[in-house]
Amino acid sequence: MPAEGQEITEHLSQKYGASPEQLAQTRETIRQRGAALGFEFGIGKRDRIYNTFDAHRLLHWAERESPPGAQKALKMALFTAYFTHGLDPSSHVVLLDLVAQVGLDVQ
Questions:
Q1: pTM value?
Q2: Residue ranges of E strands in 1-107
């Protein structure tokens, strides 16, 4: 995946062979299921998909090096940042901001 990510409909169409209409219906189903559980998917705020390797590395670090519950807090912050607000989870600035938001050491 390129550093700037990829347009989400293009990516999912290539990956799953689905039409834009099928993808729109799937996104709406996911949005409704999230809402039923109290999670807001900001469907219109996300138009790109990104490489999340560094975000996953951070989650691994939080599990190994931080107090109990820190990984879950970071995971929820990552989910909200990307799925609700459309932020880029491959951005180190975004990642460090989220680490600080959940009270972990950014050093």
A1: 0.84
A2: 6-7, 48-49
